[in-house]
Write a structure and sequence with these properties.
Elements: E1 34-36, E2 46-56, E3 63-73, E4 77-79, H1 81-89, H2 98-113, E5 117-124, E6 133-137
Length: about 160
């Protein structure tokens, strides 16, 4: 088996992999790289976890913290992980409600990458004493796709 993924017509090399890449100033400026799926035609689940995700409260400007879990079944492409890391990092200076941030990340990945299926779980730490968890998925889980539980415990506070 080759370590090099098959090229697809018009595919470009990843722009950020192996390069010094500054954090984008905003999610709108962030560019996501997609590369050919090395297992095209297969049905499998990919998971990304971002346990230290941050954005800013749109009312107070204070930081909000979340554990994001992104699961998807690739179509023709997969998201390149460094570009995803930079995209998620671009939210550090972005003001948005938990719902808008979580759903917006899921929808952008789904719209650009065109996977067979995608879901995102945003497990936000308490704001005003209330933890807010936000979930979005593109549709029903495809038949035959094994999707594990996201494994993030509900917020328990000090226990």
């Amino acid at each position: 088996m080759s370590d090099t993924p098959p090229e697809s017509p018009g595919a470009e090399a990843p722009r950020f992999l192996g390069q010094a890449s500054p954090l984008p100033a905003s999610p709108e400026e962030a560019e996501l790289d997609y590369v050919p799926n090395p297992r095209r035609g297969g049905l499998y689940c990919v998971r990304f976890s971002a346990p230290e995700f941050t954005s800013l409260c749109p009312v107070t400007g204070q930081p909000d913290f979340a554990h994001l879990v992104i699961d998807y079944a690739p179509g023709e492409t997969i998201v390149e992980s460094k570009s995803l890391k930079l995209f998620l990092g671009s939210f550090r200076n972005h003001c948005g409600f938990h719902e808008d941030v979580t759903v917006g990340i899921g929808q952008r990945l789904f719209d650009e990458m065109a996977p067979k299926w995608l879901r995102i779980g945003g497990y936000w730490y308490p704001r005003g004493g209330i933890p807010i968890d936000v979930f979005w998925q593109s549709g029903p889980v495809p038949d035959g796709l094994w999707v594990p539980d996201q494994g993030v415990q509900n917020y328990r506070g000090r226990g």
